[in-house]
Structure formats: structure tokens, C-alpha cells
Amino acid sequence: MRFLWGLSIIAVAVPMLAQEGASLSLTVHDELGRPIESAAVILRPDLNVPVGLPPPFFTDADGRVLIEGLMEGEWQVEVRGRGFMIFSAYVRLQEGLP
């Protein structure tokens, strides 16, 4: 198993024209900086929030994924790439913060 060496996370919670809520932008790459295509990104909201889980999202050929329409608050972000160890982190989405 290899490590997902790099994960760039940009979490933004700002009102959008067509869709309300926060957005989360991720870039996933290996230890050499190569993008990881088709890595699964799984989001879990704070346990105190009574909402269903969103479906998994997948990175594109550049290792990027943009997820929109999320609620403010703390989210667990889990990234799974074939042949890599699972990466997990928490992010806090808050309106007006980049």
C-alpha cells in the first residue's frame, strides 16, 4: 500500500446563484505529484446533523473534484484510491471563509 501523498483541500461556504450551500474543492495526487484519477471522495457530516450521506464523488483525470451544495459545519472527508491507503481529515465549512 502506498500513501496518498498530497491532498489539497479548498473549502468554501458562500451563497451561490444557482445552488445554495458550501462548496468543497479537492485535488488528490501521489508522492511524485501525479494526479490520482477516479479516487473516491466520501463525505460524512457532523454526527449532530440529521441529514443523509451524499453519494461518493470521484476525481477527474487531473485528480480534482468539486462538490457543491453542502451544509455549513464540520465534515469528515475520506479519500480512497486504488493501491493507496485511505486518507481521512475533517474540514469546517463556514459561510464567508475561503
Explain the layout of strands and helices.
Layout: E1 6-13, E2 22-29, E3 40-45, E4 57-58, E5 64-70, E6 73-80, E7 87-93
Antiparallel strand pairs: 1-2, 2-5, 3-4, 3-6, 6-7
Q: How would you characterize the overall build of this protein?
A:
By secondary structure, this protein is mainly beta. It has no helices and seven strands. The chain is globular. The chain starts with 5 loop residues before the first strand and ends in a 5-residue tail after the last strand. Residues 10-18 have low confidence and may be disordered.
Strand order of the largest sheet: 4-3-6-7
**Poorly predicted segments:** 10-18
Contiguous helical run count: 0
Overall morphology: globular
| Share of helix, binned | under 10%
Distance between the termini: 33 Å
Mean pLDDT: 77
Q: N-to-C SSE series? A: EEEEEEE
Main pleated sheet: 4 strands, antiparallel
Q: What class, by secondary structure content?
A: mainly beta
User: How many strands in all?
Assistant: 7
Strand proportion, as a percent range, falls in over 45%
Radius of gyration: 13 Å
Summarize the structure.
By secondary structure, this protein is an all-beta fold.
List the defining traits of the structure above:
98 residues; mainly beta; 4-stranded antiparallel β-sheet; 3-stranded antiparallel β-sheet; 47% strand; globular
